[in-house]
Design goal:
The protein contains 18 helices and 14 strands. The chain is of the alpha/beta class. It folds into two domains: 178 residues, 3-Layer(aba) Sandwich (Rossmann fold), CATH 3.40.50; 192 residues, 3-Layer(aba) Sandwich (Rossmann fold). Strand 4, helix 6 and strand 5 form a beta-alpha-beta unit. The longest helix has 17 residues. It starts with a helix and ends in a 6-residue tail after the last helix.
Length: 437
Amino acid sequence: MVYFIFRITYIFLLYLLTPFILLRLYWWRGRHAPLYRQRWRERFAYIHYRVPRGCIWVHVVSVGETIAAKPLIKKIQTQFPDTPLLITSMTPNGSKMVQSLWGDTVHHYYLPYDYPGCIARFLNATQPAIAIIMETELWPNLLHGLWKNNIPVIIANARLSEKSFKHYHYFKAVTEIALPRIAKILVQYSDDAARFARLGTISDQVVVMGNMKFDMEIPSAVLDAAKTWRASHTTGGARPVWIAASTHPAEEPLVLTACLAAKKAIPNVLCIWVPRHSERFDPVAVLCQTQGLHVARRSLNEAVGPDTDIYLGDTFGELMLWYACADVAFVGGSFSQTGGHNILEPAAVSLPVIVGPDMFNFSQITDLMLKAHACCQLQHPDLLAETLISLLHDPAKQKQMGEHARAVFEAHQGALDRLWAQILPYLKNLHGTVDNN
């Protein structure tokens, strides 16, 4: 009865909020990122063609989850080459990443809003044999629709922060009914498992896997391209280079101040700046130019000259290339109360990492990096310029921290194999026995 009342109340409130949801999507978000105004019919599960019945469905929210899912999707495509694969996402950038990585080898849609009718239309059009949801996307009507249609649900690379746990805990009477309907919850760490247990999962349902982000592969072509770019654009690699990656608007003045301070201390320093969202590319270019900094833009194929201060990485899907070109990395989202972004990407290419205090989405990884002396976590934004300049002046410390970062990355790999062992029995039920490797 409690679960029924919750669903009815939730659905009523969802419909009540519909005008505000649409205003937020099409007016507020669409004003800053016009791609939100496209393909709007998919948000309501009006799909222009049906996915072949019995597909394997993987849901990723945005860019980070898509990158984390890359090794898993590669394994699925290798082991089940004849099975249709559907990937859904929530954001335009996530959609672009899916299309960039897999093109027409997968089916791709936006996940519709969590209205009962939308979920019913979506499941009718796609008819997945299994749903693999990356990290923690627990939408009530979606989970109910999958359960009602006897579609097994696996939450992969799941995490549940203390902040999220407190929100879910208010509805514990509901989670105690809903969560046991999920086939497997494959969590990153034991802390995540403990929080799920407190919400009502059963003992054999939750399994600690580790973090799949450690199993990320860096293509040799990316490393070769970085070596070529560095040699041809930085005086044979002689210029010191740092990267400000995945920055948010609140961090832009901070990065700009660091750029100006670093230029004063090290006149030939080059900053590669990659804002988190594409709508910030033009404003960041203008911001730099108003301060007298010389900007070259990747999207315009502009060359880096001796007087270039900022190289703006204003294209999509090339962040790993720019990490591989740098000597030191500042990872954004850590001074903007966003919870930080993935610091394993610079660690994978042996970069020392600088972050701010707000890393709650990557707290375990940050702790590992700090214990290994591979990361500097700053509690005040005024320390960024000082820390950056200190590292740029000390190649030996750069090398040491970078080696420690890479060691952390390598030491915690293997989550993919553990996760695959848990998923494989469900996939075998689709098509019989397959190779376990």
